[in-house]
Amino acid sequence: MAKKLVIVMANTDPRHGEELGAPIFQASVAAAMDYEVDVICTATAGRLMKKGVAEKLFVKEGSPKSVYDFIKDAHEAGVKFYCCSPNLDLFNMTTADLIPECSGIVGGAHLIEQVMEEDCKVLTY
User: Fold this and answer.
1) Number of structural domains, the chain?
2) I want to staple 31 with a disulfide (CB 3.0 to 4.6 A). Which of 57, 59, 77, 116 is the partner?
3) What is the domain range of residue 31?
């Protein structure tokens, strides 16, 4: 049985808040079930790792909790969030621009290594 879950947010567009709830919620649930959980934000979803972006996004209009609140909850549950290295250039970011809940910057090789681990399962959004 897998001990680790990697969630890749590649096609999840921050401009559509309703797309952001499921992957972050499922990451929190898996962490609560004592799985090691990494969320890798790449492509457009990489914007979520930039300070000030997720605070302005909501899964549902009128919700009191922002997407950033959900990220903080997931992080508190043990989820590790990562920003894919090309996003720094793509969105004119530096490491200083990343939210505190971002555990670091990873490249394509890291993702491939994670996916190929025998005790790892991958969900892609």
Assistant:
1) 1
2) 77
3) 4-124
